[in-house]
Automatic annotation (TrEMBL):
Basic and acidic residues bias locations: 31-55
Pfam families linked: IBR
Zinc-finger listed as a keyword: yes
Span of domain RING-type: 64-296
Biased composition (Polar residues): 15-24
Domain of life: Eukaryota
Organism, scientific name: Sparus aurata (Gilthead sea bream)
Protein name in UniProt: Probable E3 ubiquitin-protein ligase ARI5
InterPro entries found in the cross-reference section: IBR_dom, TRIAD_supradom
Length: 309
């Protein structure tokens, strides 16, 4: 919530800057070889260097006339404009610029840059509409992943005032909210795990003394074994696992294959051996419904920490 608001604010500032930049930017992209009688369209595409252009024959795009609405820096891109799912018109390069800016600001979701448009675009839509090159796809994926890691690991909403609080010491669950502390004139400390006011001695890395503050390790140790419906011959596999990539506790719904996709980091892993599906399948081809050759990994005794790239 908080992050979205701050992005909107930045967007408005950007719109404000548009006027001042216009003149110099525009003069930069005037085609140079006009006098030689060369094909104008061809030349202008070449001159703009980095610009990506839509294929006018692409039947899956909706082309529109008018301004490139995401061209906040007034680069005056030449490509045909196409409509995003929210109806706003973009060129592939203006869309790339905008999305890269969001990522550089720490966002991990793509939102339309127009004031009063709340549209959120999937990464698939951005890849397609921004004509992302394989290098850009890789760059964007890395940034999405590390931004997501950062915001899940280090930012939570204060249970009292709802402001965003950043945690700097990842080994301490007791976190002070500066806003509430200033407000009350005494330290307000809440628990990063159960999101209630902190109870008991601090610092602690496993839990606070609130009754329902259960440490994830405790859950991994005490949960019952899972009875798979469709995977054969499994014995002694716990029903809760910590995602090997990000550490989120994940349950398997017992049906279908042994793999699960982590709802937080989106990495698919094998619930039995705790390797990524890719690694598990490489070692055990087509073993979706059978036990891995390395067997069932024992109950985990530490929670993997999501590595920021
Ligand atoms: Zn929009
Ligand atoms: Zn607070
Ligand atoms: Zn707690
Ligand atoms: Zn995960
Ligand atoms: Zn496996």
């Amino acid at each position: 919530m908080g992050s979205e608001l701050s992005t909107k604010r930045k967007r408005r500032q950007q719109r404000g800057n548009v006027e001042t930049n216009e003149a110099p930017e525009q003069s930069r992209i005037v085609p140079k070889k006009e006098a030689s009688g060369a094909d104008r369209n061809g030349e202008s595409f070449e001159d703009s260097g980095q610009e990506k252009c839509y294929d006018p024959q692409d039947p899956t795009l909706t082309f529109v006339d008018g301004e490139d609405q995401l061209d906040f820096l007034c680069n005056d891109y030449k490509s045909l404009r196409a409509e995003m799912p929210c109806g706003h018109a973009v060129t592939p390069t203006s869309l790339t610029d905008w999305c890269r800016r969001l990522l550089d600001e720490g966002e991990c979701v793509f939102v339309c840059g127009l004031p009063d448009c709340d549209a959120e675009w999937s990464f698939e839509v951005v890849c397609k509409m921004a004509l992302l090159t394989p290098e850009e796809v890789e760059e964007f994926e890395k940034k999405i992943f590390s931004n997501a890691a950062r915001s899940y690991l280090d930012v939570k909403v204060c249970p009292c005032c709802k402001s965003r609080v950043v945690r700097t010491d990842l080994s301490d669950l007791s976190v002070q909210c500066t806003a509430c502390t200033a407000d009350r004139n005494r330290p307000y400390i809440f628990c990063w795990q159960c999101l209630k006011e902190w109870k008991g001695p601090a610092p602690r890395s496993d839990r606070c003394e609130n009754d329902d503050c259960q440490s994830p390790l405790e859950m991994l140790w005490t949960c019952s074994d899972i009875a798979f419906e469709d995977v054969e011959g499994v014995d002694g596999c716990p029903s809760i696992r910590a995602c090997p990539t990000c550490g989120l506790l994940v349950e398997h719904n017992r049906s279908q294959c042994k793999n699960v996709i982590c709802p937080r980091c989106k990495v698919e892993f094998c619930f039995l051996c705790l390797k990524t599906t890719e690694e598990c399948q490489e070692l055990n081809p087509n073993s979706y419904y059978t036990v891995c050759s390395t067997g069932v990994a024992p109950r985990q005794n530490s929670i993997p920490v999501w590595q920021r790239l």
